[in-house]
Structures are given as C-alpha cells and as structure tokens.
C-alpha cells in the first residue's frame, strides 16, 4: 500500500463506521421483510416492497450485497421442462398456437391463459386447481379448486370468470395446453359461444404457456399446501393467496405495480 493510500484509509475511518451502521440498519429491514415473506422473496421483490410499503429507495446491487452478507438465500424451485402432457384422442381436436408466446398485447382481457395443476394436501389427498390468468396484467381473473378432474372443473372456472364481472376484449384469445379438458368437443363449442378465439400450446412445449405455469410454480413454493387437512382448508388457503397476489404482490415487469394496479394503469392509459 502506498503512503498516501494508507493515510486516506486512516482518515476515512469515520465514514466507514457510518457506512457500516447504515448497512446494519438496512440489513435489519431486509431481514424483516425476508422473514415475514417466509424466505421466499428475491432481491427484486424486496426492492419493490421497500419502495411501495416502506417508502425506502435502495439500490438493487446493495440489496443483493446485504442479502449475501446476511446469508439470506431465497428458496427457489427447480424447473421441470419435461412435464407430461395429456394425449388428445382423435375425437379431441387441437387448435393452432395463435398466441405464439405474445402473452402481453398491451390490453387487459385480450389474452387469457389457463391451465390445471395438481395439489397434494393432507395425508395423501389430491385436489386440482384450474385458473385463468390475464396475459397483460398477470392478474388471476378466475380460479376453481376441486377434488375431481371431471369437465366441471373447467366449466366452473369459466363461470367464475363472468361472475367476477371481468370485461374481456371482443377479440379475446383463450390459450391453453392440449389437455383433454381443452380439446373436448363440448368445451370447444362453449368457448366459441362465449366469443373467444381458442389457441393452444404446441405439444410438449411448456414455454408456450409459461406465465400460468410460472404462477403455479410460485404458488406451490410459497404455500404449505400439505399442511391442509381438508379441502375446505385448502380452498381457503388458495383464495387468500390469490387475493394477496392480485392486490399486494408487486411485480418487476409490471412497472413495480401489483396486477390490480397495473390493470387500472392500462385502462386509464
């Protein structure tokens, strides 16, 4: 070390002490958020929560540095690109992939994404969650939980969409995978009656419906689903999560707004 460098370091001791104290305070706040979110939030989510809920502007690099310093490691899921998809019969006809991964077309209700996922709860019980997500706002517009995989699962989800009073575009794309529910002849007739343009992912390509797949993945990561002992408990847990997701979950890609806020932002624009 040079002589001038040594004295510069020596004279900056007071600055270093203040900086360390400031970092300690910021780390305590980050740890608080990290713990109340069950260790399942990353740096970007923490930055948005700090700005929106605490009025604190903090550099993203600093948040990552402090998280690393405090050993705050976010629990992340492992992606499964080899998800098995249902085989359509000759009677069940598939549709063209009209959305072509253009999920956000800048208009609420323009692209609706739907899928079904398994929920293992209690002692060996299985339930199924069907949901509809807005491609522009990331809002979960409708969902339905059932212990049966019968066609009522998707029909009830559609009914919930309209019961919730959501307005969709006159040229709305209804996009799904090639599961047997969505290729069922009666379901396809009903989709046309609603005025939707039906679109489907390519066979075995999960990226063609990535936003709803991502939502299901985060839901399973963040909820202790197996702790639910009854279907009533499970439904209540899912309802609370989706309400919080739509109204309180700040998202980086939505200009740091919640899905509900971003929907209002687009409609106002």
Automatic annotation (TrEMBL):
According to its UniProt entry, what is the function of this protein? Involved in the transposition of the insertion sequence.
Query: A single GO BP annotation from the record?
Result: DNA integration
Q: Where is the Integrase catalytic domain?
A: 104-267
For this UniProt entry, the molecular function terms from Gene Ontology, in alphabetical order, are: nucleic acid binding
Query: What is the protein's species of origin?
Result: Alkalibacillus haloalkaliphilus
* Protein's UniProt name: Transposase
Alphabetical list of InterPro entries matching this protein: HTH-like_dom, Integrase_cat-core, RNaseH-like_sf, RNaseH_sf, Transpos_IS3, Transposase_IS3/IS150/IS904
NCBIfam families per UniProt:
transpos_IS3 (NF033516)
Q: Which Gene3D superfamilies has this protein been placed in?
A: Ribonuclease H-like superfamily/Ribonuclease H (3.30.420.10)
């Amino acid at each position: 070390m040079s002589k001038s460098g040594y004295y510069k370091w020596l004279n900056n001791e007071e600055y270093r002490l203040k900086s360390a104290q400031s970092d300690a305070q910021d780390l305590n706040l980050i740890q608080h958020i990290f713990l109340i979110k069950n260790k399942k939030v990353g740096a970007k989510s923490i930055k948005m929560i700090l700005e929106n809920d605490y009025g604190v502007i903090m550099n993203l690099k600093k948040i990552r540095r402090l998280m690393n310093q405090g050993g705050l490691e976010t629990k992340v899921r492992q992606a499964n690109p080899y998800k098995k998809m249902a085989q359509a019969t000759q009677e069940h006809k598939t549709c063209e992939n009209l959305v072509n991964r253009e999920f956000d077309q800048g208009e609420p209700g323009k692209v609706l994404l739907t899928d079904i996922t398994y929920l293992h709860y209690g002692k060996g019980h299985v339930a199924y969650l069907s949901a509809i997500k807005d491609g522009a706002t990331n809002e979960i517009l409708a969902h339905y939980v059932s212990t049966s995989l019968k066609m009522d699962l998707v029909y009830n989800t559609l009914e919930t969409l309209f019961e919730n009073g959501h307005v969709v575009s006159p040229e709305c794309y209804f996009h799904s995978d090639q599961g047997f529910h969505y290729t069922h002849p009666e379901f396809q007739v009903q989709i046309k009656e609603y005025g939707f343009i039906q679109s489907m992912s390519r066979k075995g390509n999960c990226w063609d419906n990535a936003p709803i797949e991502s939502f299901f993945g985060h839901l399973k990561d963040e909820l202790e689903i197996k702790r639910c002992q009854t279907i009533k408990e499970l439904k209540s847990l899912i309802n609370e999560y989706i309400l919080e997701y739509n109204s309180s979950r700040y998202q980086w890609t939505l200009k740091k707004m919640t899905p509900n806020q971003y929907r209002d932002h687009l409609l106002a624009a």
